[in-house]
Recover the amino acids of this structure.
């Protein structure tokens, strides 16, 4: 896929989850087990807006919306913290159709939540 972005769950997303009654460090179950596709979408939108703002003056598309978002992989209940040095463990994968501020880039997008050995939840997105 031609583009990809990946970052630790931001304070904005953590605050949003917290305001909905989630405490990321106090969730019943594995880290990230309370995440939904809608949470991943909001985080991807925030990451894209932040990246566009930080690269002002350069050509950078901003993700504006994700339509028809569906869960394709769900390991929220059984994800385990990987050993140090291992690949991140997949928590949740959602797919939909991306709408960008530059309409000619619209197309499929995959948004993923993964867990690293430090128990940090990473949100990433990639598309065509």
């Amino acid at each position: 896929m031609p583009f990809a972005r990946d970052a630790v769950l931001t304070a904005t997303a953590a605050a949003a989850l917290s305001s909905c009654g989630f405490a990321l460090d106090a969730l019943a179950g594995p880290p990230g087990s309370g995440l939904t596709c809608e949470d991943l979408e909001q985080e991807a939108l925030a990451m894209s807006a932040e990246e566009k703002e930080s690269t002002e003056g350069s050509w950078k598309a901003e993700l504006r919306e994700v339509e028809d978002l569906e869960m394709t992989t769900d390991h929220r209940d059984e994800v385990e913290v990987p050993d140090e040095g291992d690949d991140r463990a997949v928590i949740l994968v959602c797919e939909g159709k991306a709408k960008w501020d530059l309409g000619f880039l619209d197309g499929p997008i995959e948004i993923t939540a993964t867990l690293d050995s430090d128990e940090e939840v990473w949100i990433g997105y990639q598309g065509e």
Remarks:
- The beta strands are 3-8, 63-74, 89-100, 107-115, 121-127.
- The chain has a mean pLDDT of 82.
